[in-house]
Amino acid sequence: MDIKAFKDQLFKQGQTQGFDDIELYYESSEGLNCQLDLGEVDQFSTQEKIGVSLRGNYQGKIGYAYTEKIDETSIDFLIENAIENAKIIEEKEQNEIYAGDGAYEQMNFVSNEISQLTNDEIISFLKDFDRELYAADERVVGTNFFQVQRQDLKTAMFNTQGLELEDHKNFLFFFLMVIVKENDVKKSGTYVNVVHDWSKLDAKTCAEEAVAEAVSYLNPKAVESDNYPVVLRYDAVSSLLATFTSNFSAETAHKGLSKLKDKVGEKIAGDNITLIDDPFLENGLGSRTFDGEGVGSKRLTVVDNGSLTTLFHNRKTAKKDGMETTGHASRASYKSSIGVEPSNFYLNPGTKSYEELVKSVDEGIIITDLQGLHSGVNPVSGDFSLAANGYYVKDGKQQYATNLMTVAGNFYDLLNQVREVGSDLTFKGSTVGAPSLLVDGLSITVE
Amino acid sequence: MLSKSVVQDVISQALQTGGDFAEVFVEDTFKNNISLQSGIIDKSLSGRDFGVGIRVYKGFRSAYTYTTDFSRDSLLKTAKNAAQAIEGEGQLKASELKSERAQQLHPILQMPQTVEKARKVAVMKNASNIATSYHDAISQVVVRYMDEERNVLIANSDGKFIEDQQVHSRLAISAVASNESDMETGSYGPGRLQGFEFMENMDLNHYAKEAARIAVTNLGADPCPSGKFPVVIDNEFGGVIFHEACGHGLEATSVAKGKSVFSNQIGQRVAPDIVTYIDDGTIKNEWGSINIDDEGNPTQKNVLIENGILKGYLVDQLNGRIMDTPSTGSGRRESYRYAPTSRMTNTYIANGESTPEEIIANTEDGIYAKYMGGGSVNPATGDYNFAVNEAYLVKNGKIDRPVRGATLIGNGPKSLQAVDMVGNNLGHGAGMCGSLSGSIPVNVGQPTLRVSEITVGGRKEEA
């Protein structure tokens, strides 16, 4: 059954069975995933997937249901379940079906270079990459999760009020862990790269970067546990910011789970902190021209030199607060109901390079990598206690890797403890990006 | 779900480039998710996941493709895509398919799809009321209800054509306690491989109160000190440490390629003799239980470590080829979107002889981790980190005051060697385990036990 016929029948049958308005959200994706092990293709997989969800207004309540099977039985399934779901909803405010606002950027997030790559080209690059890893350093003993993923993703939205929208994007994603060994101790380094410009990619440079990271963790030493000045490298900052991103959502605030609840208009961070959401980044994983309710996307400054200017809103949360939506209705996929989320969210970079940040530290720690972010944080209070990897710094120079550390602090305090913001803004395979930061007052425990 | 003749054609197509084994996995899953917050139902979502995964092997290599388009043409094209990634010659003749139905080891009395949503809502409201009224400091309660009916068909070139049904039910209760300056959370998420009867028969009072009690306890707790301590880890979900730190290292996925610290160690001592570690998918209606794995092989009880000696691994078919061992019924996957690989089911440390009271009484200055949170482990190094959701200081053999924000870090195989007391109160806790083949329901379990030294990270300034 083709999707247009499916939509027409669904809308017709749904309205007959009592829906006032109906929206069909559609996602199709095509992908390739290739894993290399010991220099050979270990796993190769390709995918084609379609999923749709119905969202409909039934007697003043919104009901949802989704399916991956596009056939007549699913039309009945969607309508029956969406009606039953609408009936049990008790919340008064609803994400109503939206007629559209006409203010849509026309953008295409597809790289033709990436979509035209053949399987053989991709595999041959992976094999070069693998060879270069072993050539880069004799201590390289293996890899883990060495893979490339290509995704081509279309999202579309149609509703009975005449709205028709579509976004299209693609990306190529490399991930691997390089394992190095010296004196019988193994260490690993993670390499992540989301590629938009294939022609600029060089296997040797990528391999050297990946290996340098892994090797830098060899021969770690114990360091006195203390409160040190800390250079949080961009990847550690991004993962921390990503963990606390939902605290900037009005939905989280309305649930009473964000301390930013009544802080709009107030200072919540140091003057050097500016947080921006930009839906139009050319190679942003979260780029989009419309949000999960069909509202046109816009660039938004959330924290402006330390002041909280707004929270992220969808139409429902905005209505509750008596304001306009910021266009941040999220739809993680057709499987999820509407929430609130940023598109590409980042901490605005400063002027000093990473090297300059390190140089300004007499004695301190560099943290490159945080672990346990799904468990070692209290998203409500902002407290975190996380396993971390990094280096010891003395007299402005990186000395050696430290034994596994834990770093403990509080996210809200941290926003006020940043001495210097780096210039090296990076999105490392994520929709959240950040530059490196020089921070005071984090408690470091070393194993 | 798909006719035998279509499946037979798809298997033949998949073998056309010289593959020596082909498999078709069909899944039709129905799900319901309902959420409640501040006493009212705010979200309810139903869905149907449907798709077909096709896998081809040649020797130790494999290719996997999947599609949601179940037309014959699309399936043949998907099989062809898989075959194209295999380089070989000749065509293996697939065996004739023989239909069977997996033996149901875990009775399901009330199919969730047939239960009115209003009854599900009633259970949620009850849980919410119990947690909310536990204490004045409880400021928010969120309850999530989830059920899933997963229908699968697994067919392969060895003539297998087996159907199975798995039904899961789970309730997750989280409570927030707050005062003027702080907010703390507590949660409990019981789940079973069972129908709606699980929801109606469970001890809701216990689970909802525990969630609220943890939140309130943490609200009054001091920051945890940091340093090296003996750590007493309580039973049930406490087993998550050894799940991450040892269980994953016993999966053929890492063993087969010699990447695990446990590779080539069968018959060797890997733990003190008080440690026996078992994976058992046959335990009746447990959250991590199955009838057959996602390669169509029956589940079984696998003794991994017996009295400290490594006895076995968790093996799927493909890694079994590399290791030259039969499958242990451990090939699992989240859905048709993943090729299966070796995974755990219900994995636990077996009972020892100490009582939990004796373990505490023998601990002079340590940490008691009553409820563990999540964590992760680096498979290459064995280094792990875990959050503790509810922790106490132990002073002079007695449980002292609660502390919050504790994280345990260490190395899995080393911590296993450092287990020095094992209790006699084995319990299991439900969790979701994420790995190469996606996120699957597993139980972790253990009796109360003690590790002689773990590095604890906390926020308290002086160590």
- Measured as a percent range, the helix fraction of chain A is 10-25%
Mean pLDDT of chain A: 93
Overall number of strands of chain B:
24
Largest sheet of chain A: 6 strands, antiparallel
Explain this structure.
The complex is a heterodimer of chains A (447) and B (463). Chain A is of the alpha+beta class. Chain A is built from 10 helices and 20 strands. Chain A folds into 2 domains: 1-218, PmbA/TldD superfamily (PmbA/TldD fold, 2-Layer Sandwich), CATH 3.30.2290.10; 220-447, no CATH class. In chain A, helix 4 (119-136) crosses helix 5 (203-215). Chain B is an alpha+beta fold and 463 residues long. Chain B folds into 2 domains: 4-220, PmbA/TldD fold (2-Layer Sandwich), CATH 3.30.2290; 223-457, no CATH class. Chain B has helices spanning 4-14, 72-84, 117-132, 197-201, 204-219, 240-247, 252-255, 317-323, 356-361, 412-417, and strands spanning 21-37, 40-58, 61-67, 98-101, 138-156, 160-178, 183-188, 191-192, 222-223, 227-233, 277-280, 301-306, 309-310, 331-332, 341-342, 346-349, 365-377, 383-395, 398-404, 407-411, 419-422, 427-435, 438-446, 449-457. In chain B, strands 1, 2, 3, 4, 5, 6, 7 and 8 form an 8-stranded mixed beta sheet that branches. In chain B, strands 13-12-11-16-23-22 form a 6-stranded mixed beta sheet, covered by helices on one side. The termini of chain B are far apart. At the A-B interface, strand 2, strand 3, helix 2, strand 6 and strand 15 of A face strand 1, strand 2, strand 3, helix 2 and helix 3 of B.
